Amino acid sequence: MGGSKSINLFLAKIFGLSFFWLISENWLSHVSVFYNHIWIYIYHILLVILLKLSVFVFSFTNYSIIHGYDTISIVGSAGVRIGNPCVGFGLLFGFFALIVSYPAPWKKKLWFIPLGSFLIIFINVIRIVSLTISQYKNGDFMKLEQHDFYNYIAYTLIFILWVVWVKFVVPESDVFSSENNSGSPNKLS
Q1: What is the pLDDT of residue 64?
Q2: What mean pLDDT value characterizes the chain?
Q3: Does 186 reside within a domain?
């Protein structure tokens, strides 16, 4: 990104999307019944995706599993319950906000956002599968605070995706060319 105008616009978009997230998560979803239904449905979709992918990963193992709407367990154990804080909605939104805010062609954003989102979801699936196996083998969860540990891994992945996005997917020449091409051409006659 070049110039203070581009940086200021990027920061304004990031802060705007962060404000939208905070208002949506902490106020609108509690005040508006309509908005609450939409918000809960997004959590539901993410929960279903996580559960189905976790069941799919377990299909490659020798474990016999059972699952409900928000639980998964290996037969003979208590299993794992996936709550709303566990689905990674905030992490996915944060990644989305970073990529959408960066000045780049939309063609690149439209394939990179789903790819990065899938990777974030996939590491969450690995966490759920690992916790389920750990609960089965040890009868108790890992001693490490798994939610925070997952967030550290997810933040690291988002940082790596961000670096890949800025350095390799959208090099500075693309950013400047998309900014320059949006206005009038800078040709000398």
Answers
A1: 95
A2: 86
A3: no
Q: Mapping DSSP to helix (H, G, I), strand (E, B) and coil, where does residue 184 land?
A: coil
Domain total in the chain: 1
pLDDT the model gives residue 135? 85
In this structure, is the dihedral angle defined by the CA atoms of residues 118, 120, 126 and 129, taken in order, positive or negative?
negative
d(CA 143, CA 57): 24
Task: Quote the domain boundaries for residue 38.
Answer: 3-176
Residue 94: alpha-carbon gap to chain centroid: 7
Q: What is the pLDDT of residue 186?
A: 40
Q: Which residues of the chain have pLDDT under 50?
A: 1, 180-189
| Distant-in-sequence contacts of 112-119, Cβ < 8 A, 24+ apart | 112/165, 112/169, 116/158, 116/161, 116/165, 117/92, 119/157, 119/161
User: Residues 175-179: contacts with CB within 8 Å, 24+ apart?
Assistant: 175/1, 175/2, 175/6, 175/102, 175/103, 175/104, 176/2, 178/103, 178/104, 178/105, 179/6, 179/103
